[in-house]
Each structure stands twice: as C-alpha cells, then as structure tokens.
Amino acid sequence: MHSFDTTARGVYLITVTPFTDAGALDLASTDRMVDFCLERGVTGLTILGILGEATKLTAEEAKAYTRQVVRRVGGRVPVIVGVSSPGFAAMGELTRAVMDLGAAGVMVAPPGSVRTDDQIAGYFDMVNETLGAVPWCLQDHPVSTGVQMAPGVILRILKNAPHCVMLKHEDWPGLAKLSAIRAASDKGDVRRVSVLTGNGGGLFLPEELSRGADGAMTGFAWPEMMVDVVAAHGRGDVERAHDLFDAYLPLARYEQQAGIGLAVRKHLLQQRGAIASSFVRKPGPKLSAQDLADIDRLVRRQQQRLQQLG
C-alpha cells in the first residue's frame, strides 16, 4: 500500500470525471476508469482537480463521485481530493466529507484574490486551521490561479504547515524553483516533502525528475507513459526515460492546447475503453473533424515509435 505522506513517489494521476452522453455523472464509467488507471501502475489518484471539471459538479455530485472512486480503489492506492475554495467553510465541509468517505488527503491551491507574499502565506495559515491534522498537498499552478508563489513563499508555507506533505509543482518555467526548493531541504532549512510535478501531461517530466521531483501528479490519456518514465529514471536509466518520454511528447503536447485539451483527453480515454463517453460539461469544447484527424495521426505515429523502442 502506497502512502500519502512526505515519502510519496511515483504517479498520482489526475483523473477526468466521466459523464454520460446526456451529461449525467457516470458512476459505471468511473469504475472502468479507476481500473484502467490502476492496471497501468499508478501509485495514487487525484480527483476533483481542474481537468476533473470540479467546478461543474454540484456538492452532492462531488461527494458521490468521491465515494465511488474510493470504493472502487479499495485501499490499493491513496485517493487525493481537490478542495480548493475561496471560502473556508466550503473547504472545511468538503474536506470532512471526503475524509469520512476514505480519502487519504486533500489538495489546495490559492485563490486568485491573494497577491502579495504576506497575503499568500496568511491564506495558507488559515488553510492549516481549517484542515487541522488532515494531510494535504500544496498546488502551485500559476497558469490557472494567477498566483505567483516564489520559492521563498513556498518554503515559508511549508515551515508553517506541519501537515502539508506534498508540493504539486507546476509553475512554468519552474525548473529553477524546483531546484531551489530541493536545495533548501537538502541544507536542512525546511523539512523535505514529496514533490510531484504537473505541467500538463508532464511536459518537463524527465528534467524535473533530474531536479529532484519524486514523480508526477498530472493527467494524460496514456498514464503508463509517466509510470514508465518515472520507473526508468528511478533505476538510473535516464536516457531510456527520455526516449520513452519523447515518443509520447507530440500527443501530450496536443492534449495541452488551451480550450480543447480536456476534450482531446476524454476522446482518447473513450477510444482506449476507459470511459464510455467523451462528454464535457458546459462550458466545454467540442472537437472538429480536423482535430480528430490530427489525433489519429499522432496516435499512429506514437504506436510506431513505441514499437521501435520495444
């Protein structure tokens, strides 16, 4: 059993939320998706994230989805739930609900309303008060939040948050930030926490692993890419890690287009049998015939390259 603590490693996959073609929450596909991810070797699941369409779910749907995921996982890997909210009452209520359902911990990003270093640090002091002893992950994703957290601010948060066990690092560019955080823990200036990287399908995953990341927390229709890259890097075969990553990179890049990226991922997951429908709730994109042709070409080329790599 993998643990959600400061030693966490591997791949915590950010999942999509499956819906039916009519837009209802699809709990049968949720089971299929969980099985699909676990069969490909992920060490954790993260749900109700940005690409999990969390803001499009009702409070009851969020609880029902969490309940289904936790039940299907059956304790085999940790399940982390995004509970970010500008208001602490909502954050605390959802946190208590998902922890009661069996989640291993939660993930929190700062709201766009905090701007200065002191505002950011003060916000997370209140997060600590709200979450209590619940283990949590600090999400640093300026592209979505608009909040820039310098390395010094992140270190300040970590020093004041004994139950923050993980940093989800997805600033871009962010390699220097990752190096600075690892250097601080190596010197003993701050305790070492798990660092998992995002950046849209892990677009800098090999480099981030070389800078001290412990794995990835992001989504991609081929989760085995991240699993295999992290494994190869971990056993010291860095060139193999890069070769594998390069084979998947064109499709991972295509998935990260602003506007249609989620639709691309859901389409591919439907093609792979992980979910029954590629439906994206409104407001959401739809793929054109040209998009679908691009995707088919990229999948064929990816398969050919993987065969060459063996």
TrEMBL record:
Signal peptide from the UniProt entry: none
**What Pfam family is a match for this entry?**
DHDPS
Where pyruvate binds, per the record, is at 217
Q: Which InterPro entries match?
A: Aldolase_TIM, DapA-like
Which keywords belong to this entry? Lyase
The UniProt entry's GO CC annotations, sorted and at most eight, read: cytosol
Q: Name one GO molecular function term.
A: 4-hydroxy-tetrahydrodipicolinate synthase activity
Keyword Lyase listed? The answer is yes
Does this entry carry the keyword Lyase? yes
Q: Which CDD domains match?
A: DHDPS-like (cd00408)
Entry similarity comment? Belongs to the DapA family.
Which named protein is this?
Dihydrodipicolinate synthase family protein
Q: Which organism is it from?
A: Caenimonas sedimenti
Taxonomic lineage of the native organism: Bacteria, Pseudomonadati, Pseudomonadota, Betaproteobacteria, Burkholderiales
